[in-house]
Design brief:
Blueprint: E1 12-18, H1 22-30, E2 38-44, E3 51-55, E4 58-62, H2 64-67, E5 70-72
Antiparallel strand pairs: 1-2, 1-5, 2-3, 3-4
Length: 73
């Protein structure tokens, strides 16, 4: 299982599944991270938190804990 947390800077991946339940999963999906969407990793902070992404033309930052719940391919 490859998660968004393990993707290197400059790579583009596709979301295959979002793990998590309730409000956490809803928050991730509200950011536009849904199954099938392409995600470009722009920058990762020195300690890995936050991770800056480009999704659907928008720039956003997510926490490392949230990135671990997003399976990618």
């Amino acid at each position: 299982m490859n998660t968004l947390k393990n993707v290197k800077v400059g790579e583009t991946v596709s979301v295959t599944r979002i793990n998590g339940v309730g409000p956490t999963k809803r928050r991730i999906m509200d950011m536009g991270l849904t199954k099938g969407v392409d995600v470009y990793v722009r920058k990762v902070a020195p300690l890995g938190d936050p991770i800056e992404l480009t999704v659907r033309g928008y720039e956003l930052s997510i926490r490392k804990a949230d990135a671990e719940m997003i399976e990618v391919q």
